[in-house]
Give the backbone structure.
Amino acid sequence: MTVPFLDLRASYTSLKPDIDAAVSRVLSSGWYIGGPEVEAFELEFASYVDAAHCIAVSNGLEALQLALLATGVQPGDEVIVPTHTFVATWLAVTQCGAVPVPVEVCADTYQLDPALLAEAITPRCRAIVPVHLYGISADLDAILALADRHGISVVEDAAQAHGSLYHGRRIGAHGSAASWSFYPGKNLGAFGDAGAVTTNDANLAARLRKLRNYGSSVRYVHDEQGFNSRLDPIQAAILRVKLGHLESWNSRRREIAERYQCELVGTGLVLPKVTTDSESSWHLFPVRHPQRDEMREALTAAGVETLIHYPIPPHLQRAYAGLGYTRGAFPIAEKTADTVLSLPIGPAMTDAQVTTVIEALRAATRAMERVE
Ligand SMILES: Cc1ncc(COP(=O)(O)O)c(C=O)c1O
């Protein structure tokens, strides 16, 4: 049996009649930018994450960039970001003209380490961006308390956290704003690029609505130099259909994660830690092993597809060579990049496929023990 990392087509084929009807409704409506589908999705997603406002935008990178701009980040400001994240978290900061200040993550939860935050805050620091990486919630209580003491904003990168809980409340409006990606592979994914910002702050929401629309709230009147970053209504209509299934899809992800957590004990793999404050939506299921590359090859040979999130930390990317970091600057992020591996997880996976992954991992780790 082969196990693909992700079966994206299944999310279409399983909902084909509803998706086809939604797309054709938009095509027949004459509304091809903004309009009722986008507004309905904004209301429904805000309600799902329990936020007062949702502003739909073109993608997750722009969602974070616009959220940072709206909270007042300006060129030359500093913004704290995790050392271990997808590069888009850093790109959003630098696209505001601000400087990313990297802070290491905890080696077991992969989330921003609150114990290291205080020393990273300077008078130029304007915001902290916790990333709920892999679907595991960051330690928001500690981060929010520190930000509050320093009068700076917390903008959550929730691109991987659709349906994740923190203290029993969905991620979406714990900080000043949360940015979302609906990239097709996400727990809630469009069939193209899509994103959003959620917030409880009405002023922030109004600014975001302007920023995504050329800086304008009245046609041909421009209060600031904004962007064209609008969600298209076809994607909004598709997301509305899929949102209705997100909870059951996340439940299936949790069942699979539970099996991995129980049945991979004793294999020598480092399994992800989720604190009692947090309930993960398991966008990804990361494991770590010192011989990650050999293990990955053995899994591939056994028909199990895996991916690495992420093989090069942002501070070692050529794009950020100008910041002057070299290898050794952030050992936890570097070690994570060298040893982490994402296992297949998703609502379309069968029990038999999960068993195949577990057995392949047991065999691969046993074989590596024998070689040692
Ligand atoms: C943590 C994180 N931040 C930001 C993004 C950017 O989202 P998008 O791909 O929609 O621009 C992603 C998506 O891949 C992500 O995983």
